[in-house]
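Hey, quick one: can you model this chain's 3D structure?
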Amino acid sequence: MVTIRDIAKKAEVSVATVSRIINNKGAASAETIARVNKIIEEMNYKPNSIAKSLSKKKSNLIALLIPTLNNPFFPELVREIEMAANQMGFQVYLCNSDDNREKVEYYLEAMADNYVAGAIINSLKVTAKDLHTLEKSGIPIITIDRASFEHPYSSISVSHRIGAAKAAAHLLHDSKHQNIVFISGPKEEKSSLDRLNGLNDVLDKYEKPLNLNVVYGDFEMDSGYQAIKSLLERGQKVDCIFSSNDAMAFGAMRACKENGLRIPEDLRIIGYDNTVFSAYSSPLLSTVDQRKDEIGQIAIKELFRLINSKEDAKETERKQFFLEPELIVRQSTL
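Sure thing. Here's the predicted structure for all 334 residues.
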């Protein structure tokens, strides 16, 4: 790899002179500037962005802390954020925590070490103290959805209770369904609780008694498969299934098919997230769209505003953004 020393040696000038020319700082003759720039072009020299960050104590890196890559929603969210970041001249430093506290601590420290320009935080394992430490280190932040505590920093929240209520109302739009299964994520996961509450909001309006069976998974496909397989093997009657995410819904669909159940003829099923695969499953999966594209745009625009306010040494208010999910009706609930 070509270095600044290689450029200086070939141009027969000092490293400091090359550095000044690259950064448009300091005096040098027009002849020297032209010679150095020509050599830079010939040798295809690319400045080391990390080194520049260390010297200037700032970068064009945006840290993005997510809980997992096993749930297909998050790779798709990463893609939306990355596209929005690139449009604004930022690069994304991806931090996959696997919802592990030790990994979260490692990445939080790495953010400061790499002088990231800002951070997007989506993790239940991050504390209010962590957010305060980042801000104190000069790193503007915005949280997405999974922060389970109140904080004064910028945030994007998706109303999963409303999204779940929309899904449940559609799932139960006629009176023949009595046996409902809700596939929850982990018990302590706030978004799962919000979705269960949204389902209960709809169930409470029904005069006819309905049987609700809550089973638990980990947002991955196999957990949805195992949960429904176990119910069906025990002879549990199931009329419809509401899954906390698409991945577990796909697993549930497989378990139903293995037990000879047709979707939607024998039972209806709806997921949550509107991942790409939901539009290609068989049958096509009804689901709830969290509006990932808007989340990406809002997160980057808000960070850009905070970063510019910080650099201008101005006091800036933090903003809270609230999004309402959208119901996507496909074949699995018709």
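One thing worth noting: The first strand starts at residue 61 and ends at 66.
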